[in-house]
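Summary for the steering committee. One of the milestones for this cycle was to obtain a three-dimensional model of the protein with 1,3-dihydroxyacetonephosphate bound, which we needed before selecting residues for the alanine scan. The sequence and ligand used are listed below.
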Amino acid sequence: MNIALIAHDQKKQNLIDFVTAYKEIFNEHELYATGTTGKLLSKETGLSINRFQSGPLGGDQQIGSKIAEDAMDMIIFFRDPLTAQPHEPDVSALLRLCDVYKVPLATNEASAEILVRGLSSGWLDWRAIKDKRVRYDD
Ligand SMILES: O=C(CO)COP(=O)(O)O
């Protein structure tokens, strides 16, 4: 599965701790991240991570475009709900696309834990079904 990992600055350590805790599971998947998150995650966990631009420079939009191409299977995005982000429209757009394409999304540790445990239990195997996409062009 292709998994995107993203965290706002105040939540980066939370994401590092989370990914470290579930490293063995994450290690079995293709990982993607926005720029700074990916840099820190690979340094701190040793995992191999494909990096996009930093979030404020378009990274959220790049991940959104992967969702629209059916190339992302899960998004773990530890948002900071208490700090205004200059690129808030990009953040909203990414979350919206998760709903458009029914991509599993977790925005905090509690829901991320359920997704990751579900991933290792096969609950997300339906993602491999080719015709799962919501199509608006039929
Ligand atoms: O801002 C972000 C997500 O909206 C994250 O970007 P960075 O990983 O580059 O800090």
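Key point for the committee: The chain has one domain: 2-36+44-88+100-115+123-128.
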